Amino acid sequence: MAAEAGKNEVKITNKTHVKPNKKLGRRECQLVTFDLPYIAFYYNQKLLLYKGHNGIDFDGMVGKLKEGLGVVLEEFNQLAGKLEKDEDGVFKVVYDDDMDGVEVIEASAVDVSVDDLTVEEGTSDLKDLIPYNKILNLEGLQRPLLAVQLTKLKDGLAMGLAFNHAILDGTSTWHFMSSWAQICNGSPTIAEPPFLERTKVRNTRVKLNLSPPTNPIDGSNSEAKVAVAPPLRERVFKFSDAAITKIKSNVNASLPSDGSKPFSTFQSLSAHIWRHVTQTRELKPEDYTVFTVFADCRKRVDPPMPESYFGNLIQAVFTVTAAGMLLANPSGFGASMIQKAIEAHNAKAIDERNKEWEKAPKIFEYKDAGVNCVAVGSSPRFKVYGVDFGFGEPEIVRSGSNNRFDGMVYLYQGKKGGIDVEISLPPDVMERLEKDREFLLMED
């Protein structure tokens, strides 16, 4: 946040820890092949902004959230634990009653209103509202696996969260958030407890000889290093339901009349984004461009896992073509490539990917997303605006500044329908995308 002569400054006022209300003893579960590639990513950050209705009782809101957190952690106890390595270098997530639990930070930015923060530009001005900026997941050996920052605003509350991405994906994140909200709204139990036995999906012991970084800010002197990202601009583009329908119609217009499967909303929007980002990058026709989606594998693995599976059960799915080919063909060309890549990622392909990785474990870095990539994370299927703790639904839901790179895209449901598209690009490319009338569906 811009801090002009102290204005808009976020001040930390208190730090505490919240543990499960009940004694649970020691519980542990090894991290599996789906978890480990992300151990050198940064903590996954989310931000939810709430307006204070009928006056603001910040202390009351914080007390309610902490009380509910202690209850929900009885089921989601792994989030209250730490990472550990055994003598063989196999990582596991461990909860013990003696551990600190979840870090809860209280802060104040009383000169800032919710409306000041609900801009479409991006998240760079929001980073002070979210904890653990540039903190590697590997530091979960020393830090809590979840940190929550609750910031008092002029007319509301900002909830910033940092989840250790080595232990959970987006589906598990929003399952936890909705369960926490249920408890805060008076439910004695959560609707669906998490399925915590991650070794049921994969039980191969993978040894990683990694140590936590000596410099926790940038990961220097660590065996797990992340690439330094170039300067980027972040922007949120809001596509209404009508705009999404138009995009889907345009992409499907090129579908051959041979009974081919229509392109889904996700495939159509992804192709639209891929095409126009590639165009605004001004690549040569022969330059490769990669589309990457982090696909949920819960229903793809054999046997299938329940939706409540807690952990990472995603894999990156790639497709690649020359920029000239992507742009010379109708938008259905890119959508068809995306569709085929996703459909081909079945149980057999997942198993082969896992076996290949286990033979030669590779820790992901940003550059691994692919050259000239568009990489899509999160999902508009997540009911993020249903996370109501008893003081109304959030005004906006956004990702933090961690794990962003050139071409990273996060998709969220729009508050009033449609889909919000968060994109990170170099400033010159973003400027051209903002002027791309066809991308924005502006009439000439």
UniProtKB/TrEMBL annotation:
GO molecular function: acyltransferase activity
UniProt xrefs under Gene3D superfamilies: Chloramphenicol acetyltransferase-like domain (3.30.559.10)
InterPro entries found in the cross-reference section: CAT-like_dom_sf, Sec_Metabolite_Acyltrans
Superkingdom of this protein's organism: Eukaryota
Keyword Acyltransferase recorded: yes
A Pfam family assignment: Transferase
Keywords noted in UniProt: Acyltransferase, Transferase
Family: Belongs to the plant acyltransferase family.
Protein's name in the database: BAHD acyltransferase
